[in-house]
Design a protein that fits this description.
By secondary structure, the chain is of the alpha+beta class. It contains 5 helices and 7 strands; from the N terminus they run E-E-E-E-H-E-E-H-E-H-H-H.
Length: 176
């Protein structure tokens, strides 16, 4: 895997306004984990957040999720009365909010809490994300443990350091 690469997101985020189809740059940080370090190109879709006004059951969540999907959205994970959705066809913010408002008017107890067009989503994401690459040095852990001296492993006959280097001790079964 290259240290720096461009990625097209396959899923919509629940916590920051990034959606499937957005293109980002990601780099390996000091812990060898991918970290988004730049926002390249937003997907041409509107993101909406729909929230229940009161606690809802799983059945009510399922029903609202189906209604949103039938109206033309892709529903990201919904939980605790919240749905993050993306609209599958490019459209204006006004068109999308009009469709959502019409849908929610027929099904009381839900409200549109956020709606963001592509450029606006990236502006919000820049505020929400730390795009500076984490270059901190991973904490090292020192121990006096030496597996070949461990009596539990010795009881299994595994005491040679060369054997440890060439085996996978996690696959050794203990007797009994």
């Amino acid at each position: 895997m290259p240290a720096i690469a461009s990625y097209e997101l396959a899923n919509t985020s629940f916590y920051v306004p990034l959606i499937r189809g957005d293109r980002v740059t990601a780099e390996l940080d000091s812990f060898s984990c991918l970290q988004v370090t730049a926002l390249e190109r937003p997907a041409p879709f509107v993101l909406t957040v729909v929230m229940s006004k009161t606690p809802v059951s799983q059945a009510e969540m399922t029903d609202m999720g189906r209604l949103l999907e039938d109206a033309g959205t892709s529903v990201s994970e919904g939980h605790a009365g919240v749905f993050v959705t993306t609209w599958d066809q490019p459209g204006s913010l006004e068109d999308v909010t009009s469709v959502v408002a019409s849908l929610l008017a027929k099904h009381g107890g839900w409200r549109l809490t956020e709606a963001h067009e592509p450029a606006g989503r990236f502006d919000l994401a820049r505020d929400d994300l730390d795009l500076d690459l984490d270059r901190s040095v991973p904490h090292t852990f020192e121990t006096d443990y030496w597996a070949p001296d461990d009596p539990q492993w010795a009881a299994l006959g595994i005491t040679d350091p060369r054997l440890w280097r060439s085996s996978r001790p996690s696959r050794v079964r203990t007797p009994g």
